[in-house]
């Protein structure tokens, strides 16, 4: 055991914040890419990986559903982080000094009302924590970063304005991944089963595949499609359902799914977070 949890991004990223929230006892290991975070777990440099899968404002994280089935890892938990965006300046700077703000393009778009109100121009950075680091290193009082308070703490920046995001419910969902599956957990708020599948090339295959969940009263909370190897005909689906594969109704629904699909793969069975609502 390394007692490390890997995440994509620089120290102070929202994924780092998710690691601190979900596993405060573990050392957070920053990685350059999602693939690097996955590889850190596969190679044994880390025990777990924290991967973002979707945001309540901007939808799913690009490419993540393609990476999950190929990762060889299993989902053991989910975590939710409210994306609270802050304007961070160098020590001594005031809000009235700020003429430019740097951050990832997504965060810049999530604070457009505040930036317009204060006539602050946008600078696109590689990511949120990296922008905070750049602003700290440059030391220009007129340039601020949009990032988490954790990033400000790490890079020695001052919070000039807190929680400036346009959407007050902006939340990112993360999946905690491990080398080994754990079907033994039972959550107080129920269970989630995540899986991928490909429908057979027959008429109404997806409709028929989904029918088993309806007739067995299994609630499907997510169904998303994505292409396989750039093919317009080989479409895979990622799904989340409420329940455990050992539950009789879930077992029946998955059995029926098998008649109309190929390559069904369970990615994880894990407790539903109380923050899911």
UniProtKB/TrEMBL annotation:
<keyword id="KW-0028">Amino-acid biosynthesis</keyword>
<feature type="domain" description="Prephenate dehydratase">
    <location>
        <begin position="4"/>
        <end position="179"/>
    </location>
</feature>
<keyword id="KW-0057">Aromatic amino acid biosynthesis</keyword>
<protein>
    <recommendedName>
        <fullName>prephenate dehydratase</fullName>
        <ecNumber>4.2.1.51</ecNumber>
    </recommendedName>
</protein>
<keyword id="KW-0456">Lyase</keyword>
<dbReference type="GO" id="GO:0009094">
    <property type="term" value="P:L-phenylalanine biosynthetic process"/>
</dbReference>
<keyword id="KW-0584">Phenylalanine biosynthesis</keyword>
<feature type="domain" description="ACT">
    <location>
        <begin position="194"/>
        <end position="271"/>
    </location>
</feature>
<dbReference type="InterPro" id="IPR018528">
    <property type="entry name" value="Preph_deHydtase_CS"/>
</dbReference>
<dbReference type="InterPro" id="IPR001086">
    <property type="entry name" value="Preph_deHydtase"/>
</dbReference>
<dbReference type="Pfam" id="PF00800">
    <property type="entry name" value="PDT"/>
</dbReference>
<dbReference type="GO" id="GO:0004664">
    <property type="term" value="F:prephenate dehydratase activity"/>
</dbReference>
<comment type="pathway">
    <text>Amino-acid biosynthesis; L-phenylalanine biosynthesis; phenylpyruvate from prephenate: step 1/1.</text>
</comment>
<dbReference type="GO" id="GO:0005737">
    <property type="term" value="C:cytoplasm"/>
</dbReference>
<dbReference type="InterPro" id="IPR045865">
    <property type="entry name" value="ACT-like_dom_sf"/>
</dbReference>
<dbReference type="InterPro" id="IPR002912">
    <property type="entry name" value="ACT_dom"/>
</dbReference>
